[in-house]
Amino acid sequence: HKIIIMKRLLSVFLFLSFFFNIQAVLVYSQSAVVTEAVASSESLAEILSNFEDVVSCSPVEKGEFAEKWEVTVRQPLDYENPEAGSFGQRFIVCHRGTDRPTVIVTEGYCASYALRPGYLDEIARHCGANVVVVEHRYFEKSTPSPREWKYLTVANAMNDLHRIRTLMGEVYPG
């Protein structure tokens, strides 16, 4: 039931973000349980780079965060037809610690603004949170090639966010 509710909430956030150009922000808090990957001595970059569908993980100027990474993950073009191919979707990880709450920011446009050293989401500022800024498919660096618009659907975008949330849940359990 939790997954169904999460997917429904994500679809509402995506609708708002896509059609009303409103920033949708999801916040989840940390549990006391830490995954094996995080409990080990691996760095955040090593953990992210070792995930199966992570294509690249590059450091960026961190500003007031402990670490900051530009990550590209391979996503299916069409979740109902995996044979359609894949594309790279970019997200930015602004890391303070695995014991901190995490804010997932979804934008209707690009995520380049989060690369600025001074970037800090307002909610994250108030709760000392990690920030994961997800760039939607078909925007800036998250654009498939060739551009087949039939794959730009709310269902596919919702599944992109779910996959990134699941992936980041391995680093930030909660």
Helix-strand string: HEHHEEEEHEH
Largest sheet: 6 strands, mixed
Mean pLDDT: 83
Helical coverage, percent range: 25-40%
Order of strands across the main sheet: 1-5-6-4-3-2
Which assembly state applies to the chains in this document? single chain
Please tally the β strands and state the result. Answer: 6
Gyration radius over CA? 15 Å
What does this structure look like?
Strand 2 and strand 3 form a beta hairpin. Helix 1 packs across helix 5. The protein is an alpha+beta fold. A 6-stranded mixed beta sheet has the order 1-5-6-4-3-2. It is built from 5 helices and 6 strands. It has helices spanning 2-20, 36-39, 44-50, 122-127, 154-169, and strands at residues 24-28, 54-59, 67-76, 86-95, 102-107, 130-135.
What does the secondary structure layout of this molecule look like, with pairings?
Elements: H1 2-20, E1 24-28, H2 36-39, H3 44-50, E2 54-59, E3 67-76, E4 86-95, E5 102-107, H4 122-127, E6 130-135, H5 154-169
Parallel strand pairs: 5-6
Antiparallel strand pairs: 1-5, 2-3, 3-4, 4-6
